[in-house]
């Protein structure tokens, strides 16, 4: 996997261990040394003894260099990657009853804080979900959706919440189908970036070496390029998606609500109509029909928003 370089924030106790753990494992996979997380006896027999030792040492060094000094003092006696990994999980991924109750209470009392943007709010939610998954507690998609909707202030999101409860099954996901012009697009409130699996859809493109994007299911996928994609909208107008990540691993195109929010857009749902605003201008508009939002306008390719639980 060679020369790709990644900057991984060191785990120093104050940052989130569950998220650091996901990134650390992804980094080991990127370098092809993830087998070191199991005992030496379980590493593939096809390797020579020299190759096994090299993998074990590289993984151990990489994890050590990704820890802050205070954490390192607690695990300094662990001389293998697998024992070091297990020790870290025991120290910072406790499955005690008290911790399980604490995280569940944190989830079910989750509320949007005044002044906080939608991106940060959803990031806080995903951190809680990840912490729960790390101690083997899974929350169903519908339950996640209800918790997120209940966390939003009713004075600002009342119509959106009512519509989502009536029509959608998974947290913040709507699919956009663009006729024959490139397949399905998903507006995903949990995805960290706009992403596309098909290089041919980009009009402005450059390759990048390394980096990952977080999807709504907390999965991290490798980015191979970045660029812009143009969409034809109602009335013959066009909209441009900037900083779109090229991620061949995903199955569908994803439009990030967080990125729309960063770009100054707002999404409103009222009386069966979904609108995406930018300033005084409506850049997308759809009519809800049995969980499906069909974009209005004289377009050659209809855009369809539909609930989906798959990527």
Automatic annotation (TrEMBL):
Looking at the record, the residues that make up the Retrovirus-related Pol polyprotein from transposon TNT 1-94-like beta-barrel domain are 186-265
Q: Which InterPro entries match?
A: PolX-like_BBD
State one Pfam family annotation. Retrotran_gag_2
* Lineage: superkingdom: Eukaryota
Protein's UniProt name: Retrovirus-related Pol polyprotein from transposon TNT 1-94-like beta-barrel domain-containing protein
Upper classification of the source organism reads: Eukaryota, Viridiplantae, Streptophyta, Embryophyta, Tracheophyta
